[in-house]
Every structure is written in C-alpha cells, then in structure tokens.
Amino acid sequence: QVQLVESGGGLVQAGGSLRLSCAASGSINHGDVLGWYRQAPGMQRELVATMTIPGRTNYADSVKGRFTISRDNAKNMWYLQMNRLKPEDTAVYLCHVQRTWPTFSNYWGQGTQVTVSS
Fold it and tell me: What confidence tens digit (pLDDT) does each residue in 6-23 have?
C-alpha cells in the first residue's frame, strides 16, 4: 500500500511559479511510475508528467518546457515545478503511483488546487 499526500498548491498570477510536492508513505519500488495528473472542472483527468524508476520522464505537450518533475529519493517525495503558469493550468493536481508488480495497482493522492489568475 502507498498513501500519497500533495501540498504546494495555491493562487498565482499568470507567468508565476509554484512547486507541488507529493509525500509517499510506503516504499516506492523499482518499476513504479510516479506521476502528476490534473483535473479541471467539467474536464477529464489528464496526465501532466511522469517519471519512471530509475528516472525517465514524460510530459504532456501543453506543459513541456514549463513544468519539471523531479524526485528526492531520500525523502520518498517527488515534485512538480511549474513555471510560466497560464490560466489554463488551473486545476486540481493529483500525484499518482502506478505499480505493475506484484499486482497492477494505482495509488492517488487527494489533490491540491492550483489557480492561475490572468
């Protein structure tokens, strides 16, 4: 079992920056995929960024060059650095772990609100 808690959301003006954090309780294993997703009101949840263990990253086209996913192994945490924020980045951001061994499992945090004002 993995429990995830996000923090770092808030209100920021367009062009500003925020860093989201995800704290995991329980071990993160080789083969897990760590991720950030977001969901805006009335919209489907969408992938923002993922990081494999040992560290391959992937980003949605809409955030490439602006957002960076990173991990602190020692603290069992990962982050989403968001720069040059746009109003369309407004959403609830959720961290996620996908595990494929020994069973396929998905773990989600409760989400943190990011609001970007124009």
Answer: 999 999 999 999 999 999
